[in-house]
Amino acid sequence: MRINQRNRILSSRFNQTVTIEPKDGVAFSTLAIVIPVSPQELLLLPEGERTTPTVKIYTKNKLNLGDLVVANGERWRVTTADNWGAYGYFNNRATRLVSTQKGYSNGFKFNTTTGGRG
Known about the structure:
Elements: H1 6-10, E1 16-21, E2 28-36, H2 39-44, E3 54-59, E4 68-71, E5 74-84, E6 89-96
Antiparallel strand pairs: 1-2, 1-4, 2-3, 3-6, 4-5, 5-6
């Protein structure tokens, strides 16, 4: 028996409006529940990521890896996106972007005509 949790996301007691900035697409607003990960969940992260602030984001919309979420005045990059649509929601985990990070990177361009210089 499935218990549909969609009503929790729609409940004003728990939700907030966040902005989703997809890697490929137009930004949009949606309702979400944003909570910190538990200490046990932090242990599941790769060792180098355990000191980076991480949250769980429950949404009624599917998010993709790398999408940016603006919540509580902070920007978060989606690092896991689990489809729990059969239960009425999508379970995502995201890490906070620090001021020195950019949302997306196209890498660097290598100029072969100058031997890599310029």
